[in-house]
Amino acid sequence: MSLTTKVGGATIDYVDKRTGILGPAKANFRKLFPDHWSFMLGEIVLYSFIVLLLTGTYLTFFFKPSMAEVVYNGSYVPLKGIEMSEAYASTLHISFDVRGGLLIRQIHHWAALFFVAAMIVHMFRVFFTGAFRRPRELNWVVGGIMLMIGLLEGFAGYSLPDDLLSGVGVRIVSGIVEAIPIVGTYLMFFIWGGEFPGTDFIPRLFIVHVLLFPAILLALVGVHLVLIFYLKHTQYPGRGRTEDNVVGYPLFPIYTAKAGGFFFIVFGLITLVSAVVTINPVWAYGPYVPDQVTADSQPDWYIGFLDGMLRAFPNWEWILFGHTWSWNVFIPGLVMPGILFTALALYPFFESWITGDKREHHILDRPRNAPVRTGIGVMAITFFGIATINGANDLLAVGFHLSINQITWFTRIGLFVAPPLAFVATHRLCIGLQRRDRDKLLHGRETGRILRLPHGEFIEVHEPITDTEKAVILSHPQRRPLPMPAKTDENGVRTPRYRWRWIQAKLSSFWYRDSVETPSAAEIEAAEEHMRHGIGSEHEHRGDFEISHHEIGESETVEALTSRSEED
Amino acid sequence: MSTDLTPGSPGNLPATTGTADGAGREQPLYPLAPHQLRLTDTDPRAAKRAERQVATMFGLSALLIVAFVVAYVMVQTDQYLDLGNIGKFQLSNVLLGLTFGGAVFLIGAGAIHWAKKLMADEEMVDYRHPAATDDETRASLLEDFNDGLAESGFAQRRMVRRTLIGALALFPVPLVVLLRDLGPLPGTSLRETIWKAGERIVTDVTLRPIRPSDIPVGGLVNASPGSLEEVQHAEGNMNERAKAVIILVRMTPEQIKSQQGEGWDYNGILAFSKICTHVGCPIALYQHVTHHLLCPCHQSTFDLSDSGNVVFGPANRRLPQLPITVDDAGYLVASSDFHEPVGPSFWERG
Amino acid sequence: MTRAPRRRHPFAGVAVLLVGLVATGTAFAAVNAGTSAQASGAVASQTQVEAGRQLYVEGCASCHGIAGEGTEEYPSLIGTGAAAVDFQMQTGKMPATSPGVQVIGKPRNYSDDEIAAIAAYVASLGAGPAIPTAAELDFAGADLSEGGTLFRTNCMQCHNFAGKGGALSDGAFAPSLMDVDSKIIWEAMLTGPQNMPIFSNETLPPESKQAILKWIDHLQNDKDPGGLALGSMGPVSEGVFVWIVGLGLVLAVTVWIGAKVR
Questions:
Q1: C203 interaction partners in chain B (CB closer than 8 Å)
Q2: Does residue B205 sit within a domain?
Q3: Which residues between 17 and 76 in chain C have a beta carbon less than 8 angstroms from any beta carbon of chain A?
Q4: Tens-digit pLDDT profile for residues A464-483
Q5: Residue B224: in which H helix or E strand, if any?
């Protein structure tokens, strides 16, 4: 017995005698996790979060969350003698007078950008593969809440230094709060401790940023991970994979090394980026003063879509019964994000209502096999993308010599027109891929080998696809839309909730519209038999025929022949 | 294997996921691909090489940590690395970041390389369990629950139950009420600024009073009330600044299409609030040929020659105009406060 | 757009300034017997004005009128002063090739002598801001921090916090200040070219202008100390970086981790 085992054994023994930890540990120690690069997206989020906690704690040792006016006297010459808030002064102190302070600040901010970006990519991975289906709907909702809090937490974080850019952002938020009907003005006065900017906001925001939101996030991360462990990870379709099993590598030692190592990789990469690329150069913006502003006033990228919607929204405002309804601020600033996040959180329930599919799913969908879902996802990305781009319309205007007004009009129209177009295009693409899958099953893979038959006809040789490919394609359980409800039952009694069920059935048939039938076992068998026979006979007669090898696309003639042979 | 065509269940698939074994578990249609040995599994020299690579990464990492400490001690924050066209770097930031980042990265890379090359890599299979608790446990829990309910008397003692519900419903009230003193009530504060008749207009930053002749046609001055600095220091906040700041622009009297009040200009000099009526950004992107004022935050555009009306963008309301005149000493002063609230809309504004 | 801002030798700005000043000074000295143009006082020599008039009639009169009175579409030059002429012609904005939302600068096609002559002629039409003297442009004694505050109050809203320029309405834009020398900036503040408003010497006195010049010099020559500045375009370029480079690197690693080993 080696020394490590002895020491380790003694420690484990000590802890177990006091906690009984070995029971739960045994259950999870060799837990299997499937291997795929896209399963590590969530890990990026988790690891950037840990990096954020570590560096954030360090920053609190130096940061002074106070809006009291001080005169800067630190070592950054261009700001010497300027009046500023203590928050801003201490941020400069961290950047220029604390060794490694700038590094930690830049790591913290870069990690925040990684955090949200990875969260969104992870979310779309889960979405497009249908990993949110039963039994994981609640984990999806937890993820949605984390995304929302992540955005707010990011906003709170970059607002704390009280620099000119973030101060303008805070001013915008105060304007959005003021636009809430009935309670807006009061809410704004309570949050800011009076009029804008006051002296209470930064200290209050600080405690929200370092305690309230991180605590909620930490709790939700815990729930998220426990559920992943309890439900076991989903897996992509493939050989040996069923809904009842999980194929992969054990937590110990493979994932201890891979996932643990990946934490260090993420931490290392963020640190390397922070070493050479500046982020949020607060010293360049200057301290916040309510009468100063810079061109290119933008939020961090993940708030960009909100800013973009705020920029694009028409200037509707009503004065009704002596009160102001600022639709131009309230709708894009609060109602639309509210709708977007609610729709996001409720999506799994919506989908299972339409499909009538309440089963447990552990094998992931291929995006092509759920064309409507994939279309909705691409539609959301399109909307989010256009709104985000409009959040930088002033930069685009300068960079591409356009007019801000043109870009804004493009966005106003594009936000409504482009997402449906993206949906249709994606839906068609998915159906096309489904057809290709069916073709591959029935006619095999095109080999690019052209064969000339005795009577002069050219054909391309097709080969059956591999078992791995077959396992993937056949993993897709085909379903039928819900039946249209009868208006009345056989006794003439009106079907309860007829209208509701009619809508459900209509949506359901839309969901499955144009889906390609997977061939039956008999069809596949016959097709494979045909292919085997075909190839076999070719081999037999190889000596007798003139055989030439071509790559597909080598010449027009070959292409023409290829397409002809496909029609067969 | 299911082949039923009932809604929401697998359709006509021949062998979606294969057949079931004795324990009712689905068997895969295509079995797991046979395990393939890696070079490091078959060639001891390759394994040795991988081991050396991993060890090199860990070793380098340790060296970088030493380098980090050296850099921390040796390099101060005021030393810079100027790489001309590439950029200027705080030397300590670069050295600390590269050494620490490199060290951390190498630990990760080493661990993963180790896992990929040297640890056993045969895929294993485990079975899932349904998410739900089994029926027996459920039944037994329900029994426990009913027992407890009966023992508590919660169901029978209606008075206890109702008063408890009432008490619990009210208990959060103090938690909400306590929030009241987070801030004062708005009152009329959003409708007033410190501008008043005779209040001198001074330039921002340099605080110089302004004579009308100081501003040429096409000129722009960022200005504020003369008493602002005093008020700001007395109150210890920038609340008044956030409402009172203005811009002065001058055009020829013929260029002025309309104003918010008769004679609110002074010989073509117009004073407008600098705070956008959309969500309150300060605006001073003035184009003196078109007389357009653009907000850099959301691109609301105001025509200052036409009462400050909105010509583009999400803002709905015109930019409030400040009536101005000159005092006895010949300096520009306000004739009164703004006649409407400055800044973003709010519910009570009307 | 270039990502990395253009860098120059720390002394490049000063050198350009010196060369410019010397050249302008020599040109003046040659024709004008050493007098520099003053706002209302010193008048350029008659020969220089006459030379300027000749050049003006050839190159400018078709738009601005035979005696600078302007036409229906193009502005009068009476009272615009020498500074405006110097600004417009040194930057190559005038003579304009085509009218549009905004006239763009291009390599100038008049010599310093010729520009000085035209400036003298236009100045003779009516009093206007003069070309700043070397003494006025000497910002060495100005306060850098105050320059920063003045810049943030008066300039940054259009020209961006790093002087990179920014968008205005209807396709107009505020140009970058990165490669502009002090004299041109001074003239721009004083004369309000195109859509830029005028910051007169009375509301923004010469010492404030000097402080602003000092700040712009700092923006031009002192690079952002945090490392690569990503074009100083604020959070947008940071967002683009994190998606393309940042996530790109991390995803490359995930693919490496997930890849099968042979």
A1: 203, 208, 210, 214-215, 219, 221
A2: yes
A3: none
A4: 888 899 889 988 877 888 98
A5: strand B220-225
Using pLDDT thresholds of 50, 70 and 90, give the confidence band for residue A345. very high
The residues that bridge with B219 in the sheet, in sequence order, are C198
Q: Answer yes or no: is pLDDT of A437 > 50.
A: yes
DSSP C36: P
Cβ-based neighbours of A339, under 8 Å, separated by 6 or more: none
Q: Please name the amino acid found at residue A461.
A: V
Q: Which residue segment(s) compose the domain that B37 sits in?
A: 2-182
- Same domain for B157 and B208? no
Please check whether residue A122 is in contact with residue A115, taking contact to mean a CB–CB distance below 8 angstroms. Answer: no
pLDDT in tens, A511-528: 998 888 888 878 888 887
CA C220, C226, C228, C234 dihedral sign is: negative
ipTM of the complex: 0.92
pLDDT digits 0-9 by tens, C29-61: 444 433 334 443 345 678 888 899 989 988 888
Does B74 share its domain with B208? no
B window 233-252, beta carbon within 8 A of A: 236-239, 241-243, 245
- Domains assigned to chain C: 28-131 (1.10.760.10), 132-224 (1.10.760.10)
- Weakest-pLDDT range from A102-106, A381-385, C58-62: C58-62
CB B274 within 8 A of CB B284: yes
Higher-confidence residue: B261 or A2?
A: B261
Are the C-beta atoms of residues A455 and A557 closer than 8 Å to each other? no
What letter represents residue A317's amino acid?
A: E
Tokens of residue A245, six digits = 């099993």
Distance from CA of A363 to the nearest CA of C (A): 18
Q: What is the pTM of this model?
A: 0.90
Domain hosting residue A402, numbered range: 366-443
Within a domain: B192: no
Contact between B203 and C203 using a beta-carbon 8 Å cutoff: yes
Q: How many CA atoms lie within 13 A of A197 on its CB side?
A: 32
* Beta carbons of C229 and B87 less than 8 Å apart: yes
Buried b (16+ CB within 10 A) or exposed e, A498-526: eeebeebbebbeebbeebbebbebeebee
Contact C156 A121 (CB under 8 A): no
A281 and A338 co-located in one domain: yes
CA C48/CA C121 separation, integer angstroms: 8
Report the distance separating Cα B210 and Cα B98, nearest Å: 54
A153 and A207, same domain (yes or no): yes
C35, with CB counted inside 10 A (0-12, 13-18, 19+), is middle
Helix (H, G, I), strand (E, B) or coil at A248: strand
Q: Are residues B111 and B238 in the same domain?
A: no
